[in-house]
Task: structure prediction
Amino acid sequence: MNCSKFQDSITDYLDGALDSRARTECATHRLRCRECRELYNDVRMTVGALGSYARLEVDEPAELQAHILAATTAGEMLSCSAFDNLLERYFDGVILAPTFQTFQAHFTNCSKCRRLLAGIEEAIEMCREVKDSEVEMPDSLYGRIVAATVGPQPSDESPRGRFVRRWHAVYARFVRPLWTPQFAAAALIFAASFFMIISRFGSVSGMASEAGAQAERLVTEGQDAINQTGVMAITGIQRVSYEVNSILQDAKTTKPPADQTDPDLQASPAPSAAPVTSPEQTGTDEHLQPKPPSPRHSSRRGK
Amino acid sequence: MGANAALIKSDAELVRRCRAGDSAAWEQVVHEYSRRVYNLAYRFTGRHESAEDLTQEVFVRVYRSLEQYDPQAGDLANWLMRLARNLVIDDYRRRGRTPTDVGDDLTDHEYHLESHLDAPDRGVERHERAKQVHAAIAKLPPDLRECVILRDIEELTYQEIVDILKIPVGTVKSRINRGRIELAKILRRMKVVEIM
Result:
């Protein structure tokens, strides 16, 4: 063993941490090498001196504890979680005086808790502002509350509220179930139809006015047709009545043969009944018979 | 802390009351551990003023970390001193491990024996030797110094030193060995070893 290896092993040799062979080699070298022997002795005494030194303590400065306590106030000692627990009592104003001092000291020293306290104060202020400013209650709310508690009371409900409530019911029952993928497809088809109408008529109102004009035209034409037919019918009836009266007048003077009946009279049911009526019936129904044509009538016929 | 204040025996209760803002409980913690922390800081910094600042800083960090203390995991003393060692070494490394000149400082303070069984002349001798050991440690290279202090003064195991310094155990052993040798040479030059 050389000196360098011996010096590297001094600590383990002193601590008894070497195996027997290494310990023997060290012991042999220590006996042979004076320098290493003196170094070993010095190190052994140094370790002893360090042990003695470790058991000696210097006095701490008299004011050290006071300085430490001044640097670590009760407020700083108060943990943040303990601070949190005190917050509620702090805002309720029921915190005791010594605790309050601790609380305030912690508040002064801890920026995190300072921000927390400021945030809570701000939140409380916001709550107060909200409390002072009220918003309008929706008209339907009263009715909904009543309906949800003591049942519907339509007599007390405003028309608008009733409408809103019904709309909600309809919406819940019919409209809401429509919000499905199928409804989306249907809506797409409707939109396509709408687009086609727009492209054809320019707008929905254009289509509506077009349809209105068509309907009006049809009604006008229908009325014209009906009026025309009516006029023709009246004219025909008047003509038949006139012919019947002429025949009846002639029948009072000369009994005409049956085959001399005017073909126009045969076509009319009323004159056809006349030949078969009894004289009593004829007399009874005389007032029903058409009167002789007025001069105006005759003049018109003379035209 | 008031003399009449009843000492809290349980670490768990002591810490619980500190967390609740009980100043008396915190004063008890400071009173019990400030001297140990101060001495640890003094061994690393070599100066009273620096040690005092560092001790104060350690206690500020301790109470801010009190919520992390788990009574089930061990004594408050072990937890607090482990935290203190980490902080002192962080500070030691942050300051570039600058060697401290403790020449003037040594004359101003008194060492006190934990044990008072020694004879008065023996006590004077130990006191003198302690000052010279302190001066010799200050002359060690920083890497070696921290390992020697942790092993031979704080009496930590190799593994504890590995955990604190975050270096391999082989490096720790090597530095302790070299540190001891260097310290022995320094003390010899100072004629300290010969008088032991």
Summary: Chain A touches chain B through 43 residues (CB under 8 Å).
